[in-house]
Specification:
Elements: E1 14-15, H1 16-29, H2 35-42, H3 69-78, E2 83-84, H4 88-91, H5 94-97, H6 102-107, E3 110-111, E4 115-118, E5 123-126, H7 129-141, E6 148-152, H8 158-171, H9 185-195, H10 204-209, E7 212-216, H11 220-223, H12 228-236, E8 240-244, E9 254-256, H13 261-266, E10 270-271, E11 275-277, H14 284-305, H15 313-319, E12 320-321, H16 323-332, H17 335-342, H18 346-358, E13 362-366, H19 368-371, H20 376-389, E14 399-402, H21 409-414, H22 426-433, H23 445-453, E15 459-463, H24 467-470, H25 474-482, E16 486-491, E17 504-509, E18 518-519, E19 522-523, E20 526-529, E21 534-538, H26 552-563, H27 572-577, H28 579-589, H29 597-600, E22 607-608, E23 625-626, E24 645-650, E25 655-656, E26 659-660, E27 664-665, E28 670-671, E29 676-679, H30 681-686, E30 694-699, E31 708-716, E32 723-727, E33 752-757
Parallel strand pairs: 1-9, 2-3, 6-15, 7-8, 7-13, 8-11, 12-23, 13-14, 15-16, 16-17, 24-32, 29-31
Antiparallel strand pairs: 4-5, 4-17, 9-10, 18-19, 20-21, 21-22, 24-33, 25-26, 27-28, 30-31, 30-33
Helix pairs in contact: 1-3, 7-26, 8-26, 8-28, 9-20, 14-17, 14-18, 14-20
The structure holds ligand MGD (2 copies) and molybdenum atom (MO).
């Protein structure tokens, strides 16, 4: 270990006893049903059930406990014994509930009945499924297709998602935005452009062969904890790990495997990062350019001395384009510019660069720390540059690893949840179902939110999610959402989006994937796709939270039947009875990805859908992998100014997006509250502030709009100067809808210009 980084704020390593205590606390808080423990034992195994939390893949050779702290929390929260039934609404109006926290709304438990909003009493009231479907169908039929948006959050299985997209297109629109528009859309756009594949290139075995992992803005300890197991194994066989992150994240510092009795009893920690570089928010382009400079300098020395080349010149010649311009850019950029823009020292970057040069096989891992910036796409192109220099894509033990969010967020895209018409085989849909799919693009999230605010969207359907809370411009969004003719939310639990009902509004409660899904043809299997493009079957066994719930698929088909003109090719009822028939349709629509779908879905670890870049087939315009010479050194859309900070919005260890499980972020030493803003001691002192002081964050966009978040307590935290941090979703009131990655439209939630007001 070179410079062991310590996390002064953490209450212990990632994993370890802290992790078990945390699971036990959530088990108690949720009054989870005992069946939850059986579900955990089957989680992420063949013939088991795929976790409802993140999209991290399931290994072929699974562990006895193939779940993590946060997967367990998600499971326990779905299987809570708390119920939010029709009687709940006798005591609460919608308006009163707007004063409740996200956590309190979540704690009301599972929604048990289909509900309709009653404006006269300002309450949701019980309705029947048939009445709900009929009323929604009638309203949709009165609207023009492009006035309706079909949103999905990445939970629903492939089968329901395919039919949802089919419903939208048969209705006449490609308005199919998805949560990835706020998340990894940057990946879909940038990776597609430079390597021809919109998703990560590695497979599970690569994790076991890599010599080094470079982490940029991804937090496995909280957001994909099962990743810590292969990382621990990698460290034990001598692999090196280098992390770039403004925040010292405990999962990237050290880990005690909670599923290894010896480690637990002896407290044996695995140190994760060999080098931990606290880059400033938005400074990664410069940091990666520094690493590239180390590679070029080492190659120059090798050339001079007649040693082995450091650049993979054969690969570069055969497989790439744009290298000459890129090389010139590297040579032209000075170390002092790199230091200023990254906030890192040349010496630290040289140490990290040496690890990169010495490793035969490198995996580049990233998450929201790269994607959620105004020039997030450039961040990703820069990471690809770094990997391409030494042929680290499309080779064993090497590649590009974006870590996806929701458990089926990637898969939904694969089966047609896409607002861009060119991403969908419309000709096949046309021949299979005999209707004319719309050929013009629909709206992604930013477009949809803007159209909503301008009154151009009349109805919003949400297959999961909590969009009002997840997007920027929250106050304006709440007003606009409630001004619609119709809002329909397919949900498991109450959330803030339900509290701004449209003129007609419905909450349609669905089964969780963990629960038994029984249809006319018997108990159903569903499938999901993970971050490594593996498709796995999942069988829910838990007793449904209420006998009145329907599966997401049955809700989609119920809505479609009530809305669309009859078409003998659209056999909604038959498909609802047997999801295997839907998988046949998916296979007919995407024959290459889903060959022998029904037969292969039970393969251990899932079946691999394949990926061009993984085999060095580059489906780019140039038919090669593309080097891009960055035209800037940071990913920001604003410059530094006196009193202006770069605010990054963070997730605690006790939340899943807008679902807040509790108030313990033990890795950051924050307990009992989320109303904090983290600043470096130097920044606190320089601004004449003090720890514990309560301040207001004011966004600093120069668009004349006043956006404020009051009531945040200042906490001193180990951060680079100028970078401050506070929680998502609370901070969404501060973000302008125009503040997003220029190429993909992903909101720039990791670099928001703000001022601190006393
Ligand atoms: N338990 C749990 N699991 C989850 C989720 C959850 O909320 N809770 N959410 C799910 C979803 S939808 C997603 S998309 C993923 C998100 O998972 P991640 O991609 O890990 O997302 P974040 O935690 O938002 O941010 C990642 C890291 O980026 C760092 N960062 C911020 N700005 C910068 C920067 O400019 N440069 C660099 N290098 N780093 C930066 C932050 O400090 C943070 O550690 O997780 C999924 N899994
Ligand atoms: N400032 C800031 N904003 C962000 C981010 C950030 O880092 N910073 N991250 C962004 C990211 S990465 C994402 S993905 C989005 C998340 O945006 P969304 O996906 O819209 O939000 P979630 O919080 O994941 O949705 C939670 C709700 O989904 C419902 N739900 C849970 N399970 C199921 C299920 O199985 N089926 C159905 N039908 N419903 C279910 C519940 O009712 C729950 O309240 O937020 C984005 N917004
Ligand atoms: Mo996400």
């Amino acid at each position: 270990m070179d410079d062991a980084v310590e996390n002064p704020e953490a209450e212990g390593p990632a994993g370890g006893w802290g992790s078990l205590k945390s699971i036990v606390r959530i088990y108690g808080d949720n009054r989870s049903r005992p069946a939850a423990l059986e579900v955990l034992a089957r989680q992420n195994k063949p013939k088991g059930v795929m976790c409802v939390s993140c999209a991290w893949p399931k290994p072929k050779n699974y562990h006895p406990f193939e779940f993590c702290e946060n997967g367990a929390k998600a499971t326990l929260s779905d299987l809570t014994s708390a119920r939010c039934g029709p009687d709940f609404w006798q005591d609460h109006t919608v308006k009163a509930l707007r004063g409740w926290s996200d956590h309190d709304l979540e704690q009301t438990g599972r929604i048990t009945h289909p509900l309709r909003y009653d404006a006269a009493t300002d309450r949701y009231v019980e309705t029947s499924w048939e009445d709900a479907f009929a009323a929604i169908g009638a309203r949709l039929k009165s609207l023009s297709p492009d006035e309706v948006v079909f949103y999905s959050s990445g939970h629903a299985c492939l089968e329901a998602s395919y039919l949802y997209a089919l419903f939208a297109r048969a209705f006449g629109t490609n308005n199919l935005p998805q949560s990835s528009n706020m998340c990894h859309e940057t990946t879909s756009v940038a990776l597609k452009r430079v390597i021809g594949s919109p998703v990560g290139t590695i497979v599970w075995d690569d994790l076991e062969k890599a010599d080094a992992f470079f982490f940029f803005g991804q937090n496995p300890g909280t957001n994909s904890p099962r990743f810590l197991h292969p990382l621990q194994e990698a460290k034990q066989r001598g692999a090196r790990i280098v992390t770039f992150n403004p925040v010292i994240e405990q999962g990237l510092v050290s880990f005690v495997n909670p599923q290894n009795p010896t480690d637990m009893l002896t407290g044996r920690e695995t140190v994760i990062s060999d080098e931990y570089l606290q880059v400033q928010a938005g400074g990664d382009i410069a940091a990666m350019l520094g690493l590239c400079k180390v590679v070029v300098e080492a190659d120059d020395r090798a050339l001079a001395s007649g040693g082995a080349r450091v650049l993979d010149v054969d690969f570069i010649a055969q497989h790439t384009t744009g290298f000459t311009a890129f090389l010139a850019r590297i040579r032209d950029t000075s170390w002092s510019d790199i230091e200023r823009e990254s906030g890192l020292s040349e010496a630290a970057l040289r140490r990290a660069g040496e690890i990169y040069v010495q490793a035969e096989r490198v995996i580049g891992v990233y998450g929201m720390g790269l994607t959620q910036h105004s020039h997030g796409s450039l961040n990703i192109e820069m990471l690809v540059n770094l990997l391409l220099m030494r042929g680290n894509i499309g080779r064993e033990g090497a590649g590009c690893c974006p870590v996806r969010g929701h458990s089926n967020v990637q898969g939904q895209r694969t089966v047609g949840i896409a607002e861009k018409a060119k991403l969908v085989p419309m000709d096949r849909l046309k021949s299979l179902f005999e209707f004319d799919p719309p050929d013009h693009d629909g709206m992604a999230i930013v477009d949809a939110v803007k159209a909503l605010m301008q009154g151009r969207v009349k109805a919003f359907l949400s297959l999961g999610g909590n969009l009002v809370r997840a997007v920027p411009e929250q106050e304006e969004m709440e007003r606009a959402w409630a001004a619609q003719d119709l809002t329909v939310m397919v949900s498991t639990k109450l959330n803030r989006s339900h509290l701004f009902p449209g003129r007609e509004a419905f909450i349609l409660p669905c089964l969780s994937r963990l629960e038994r899904d029984e249809q006319a043809g018997g108990v159903q299997v569903v499938t999901t796709e993970d971050s490594f493009s593996n498709i796995s079957a999942s069988i829910g066994k838990a007793t449904p939270a209420s006998p009145h719930l329907k599966s997401e698929l049955a809700i989609v088909t119920g809505l479609a039947r009530a809305t669309l003109k009859p078409n003998p090719r659209l056999e909604w009822d038959k498909w609802t009875g047997d999801y295997g028939l839907v998988r046949d349709l998916i296979e007919q629509t995407y024959p290459q990805d889903f060959r022998d779908y029904n037969a292969r879905m039970f393969e251990a670890g899932g079946f691999y859908r394949g990926n061009g870049a993984h085999c060095r087939i580059w489906k780019t315009e140039e038919k090669k992998a593309v080097f891009t010479a960055p035209d800037r050194l940071n990913a920001l859309s604003f410059s530094d100014a006196q009193g202006r900070y770069r605010l990054l919005t963070m997730r605690s260890n006790d939340q899943f997006n807008t679902t807040i499980y509790g108030y313990s972020d033990r890795f950051r030493g924050i307990e009992g509250t989320r109303n904090v803003v983290l600043m470096s001691s130097e920044d606190i002192a320089a601004a004449g502030l003090r720890e514990g002081q309560v301040v207001t964050l004011v966004s600093d966009f120069e668009d004349g709009r006043d956006r404020q978040l009051p009531g945040l307590e200042i906490r001193a935290h180990t951060l680079p100067r100028g970078t401050i941090a506070a929680y998502y979703p609370e901070c969404n009131v501060l973000i302008s809808i125009d503040h997003h990655d220029v190429m993909s439209g992903t909101p720039a939630s990791k670099s928001i210009p703000v001022r601190v007001q006393v």
